[in-house]
Specification:
about 425 residues, alpha+beta, Beta-Lactamase, Helix Hairpins, five-stranded antiparallel sheet, binds adenosine-5'-diphosphate
Length: about 425
């Protein structure tokens, strides 16, 4: 096609020039012949330009415009490019239609938001779950879903975790709302009805909390009687001394497990929206040092390296548990004479609470599972040292509450370091 255009143009020039040359030879009108040639060439080009314009105006519908010469070459290149673009646009349209069709089948509400959080499109579930109507397209999502927790979530602009709320549109239902940023500042809001799941989790948590609570009183009574029996010498005192001692140890263990289970369920059930408080961490660590030395009974050496000016926002009781649990583990899993370092400092990106010991250490295969409830590397050792198997599970929950993370580095026989990294946003 491209060489045809040039060929046709050359053919026209050669044939017109030949006719005019013949005319000039016969009539001896050389200037007139040249003039005719130039005029007809210009006229031909002007006509082609006009045809080309018409073709462009008709949005390239006519694949072969009635243009000639070099212009046909140009129209060929333009229409080729156009065809490629159309194909691409068709493919994009197909893909976007396919995506919309798939989103209609999802049992969750899916709402696409543009960069100013205005609704672009939504699937049919959004109508029943969130009450979004067709006329809401183009409205800001915060004026359609007016739930205060959601508006706050949107404002915070931190979408690493979903938001769990009781729906204000359908008050008896619980929703999990997650915003997922995508494509050039756009966002996808995905809302799921998790009422049944939430109720099940709640029943489980309540059961553990209630059972622990119910066991607490009878156990206190039993421990009381055991103490009285132990302290009151009677007949066969020698015979009963050892069993009584065992009973006391086991009762003490049971009480520790119950206390830890209660602590865990309190941390779990505390509302996510509860306000964090300003905590004077250096002061807390001074008290911790006293408690740790008491627990160690002089068997370990402590080194507290604390940035005295560094305070943070957080939940006081859970944090106290976290600080103590890591130090208590370091004491319990380090032989006598061990060194324990407790550090509190800031880096460019985090607030760091770190506990390092030169104790037993943990082999690598256990590390990923340490934070599971009742997971113990060495059951006997844990029992002997009064462990409940819940300490690190509590630590994990406290960290989650503060959007913090834990790094464990350990070498068997050499020691371990537990490093908690809190986001800098919690710094006071
Ligand atoms: P436990 O009450 O048994 O100590 P934790 O949840 O606190 O339970 O810890 C889980 C397991 O991790 C422990 O059983 C222990 O084997 C291991 N562990 C925790 N801290 C240390 C440490 N500092 N050094 C060695 N092992 C540790």
């Amino acid at each position: 096609m491209s060489s045809n255009g040039i060929k046709r143009e050359l053919t026209w020039i050669v044939s017109t020039a030949s006719v005019l040359l013949l005319f000039a030879l016969v009539t001896d009108q050389w200037v007139l012949s040249l003039f005719i040639f130039i005029i007809s060439y210009i006229a031909r080009q002007l006509w082609s330009i006009r045809q080309f314009e018409k073709w462009m105006d008709s949005r390239l519908k006519n694949r072969h415009p009635p243009v000639t010469g070099f212009w046909s070459e140009l129209t060929y290149l333009v229409s080729k490019k156009q065809r490629a673009l159309e194909k691409h646009a068709d493919l994009n349209l197909y893909k976007s239609e396919q995506f919309k069709a798939a989103s209609m089948l999802i049992p969750d509400a899916v709402v696409s938001l543009e960069k100013h959080n205005r609704i672009e499109w939504f699937n049919s579930v959004s109508k029943s779950l969130l009450g979004i109507r067709t006329h809401d397209k183009g409205s800001r999502i915060a004026s359609v879903i007016r739930q205060p927790e959601f508006v706050e979530y949107l404002k915070k602009n931190d979408f690493t975790k979903p938001l769990t709320v009781n729906s204000s549109y359908r008050p008896s239902r619980t929703y999990e709302m997650q915003i997922i940023p995508y494509f050039e500042n756009h966002k996808l809001l995905v809302v799921r009805d998790i009422t049944e799941l939430y109720q099940l989790a709640q029943i489980r948590k309540d059961f553990i909390a209630n059972a622990s609570h119910e066991l607490r009183t009878p156990l206190t009574v039993l421990r009381g009687y055991l103490e009285v029996m132990f302290d009151t010498p009677g007949e066969h005192q020698e015979h009963w001394e050892l069993p009584l001692e065992h009973m006391q140890t086991q009762a003490h263990r049971m009480q520790s497990i119950i206390e830890d289970l209660l602590a865990l369920s309190t941390i779990e059930s505390e509302s996510i929206t509860a306000e964090k408080e300003k905590i004077n961490v250096p002061d807390r660590l001074k008290q911790l040092e006293i408690d740790a030395k008491q627990l160690s009974a002089g068997k370990h050496q402590f080194f507290f390296e604390v940035d005295e000016s560094l305070e943070m926002y957080g939940y006081p009781e859970p944090l106290k548990s976290l600080f103590m649990n890591l130090v208590s583990n370091a004491v319990r899993y380090s032989p006598d004479g061990g060194n324990i370092y407790v550090r509190w400092f800031g880096t460019k990106r985090h607030l760091v609470y770190e506990v390092e010991d030169n104790g037993l250490g943990i082999s690598q295969e256990h590390i990923p599972r340490l934070m599971e409830r009742f997971y113990r590397v060495d059951k006997d050792r844990s029992r002997v040292t009064g462990g409940t198997g819940l300490g690190l599970a509590i630590v994990k929950h406290v960290l989650e509450k503060h959007n913090a993370s834990l790094q464990i580095t350990s070498v068997l026989g050499k020691g371990s370091t537990f490093r908690c990294e809190f986001p800098l946003s919690l710094a006071h």
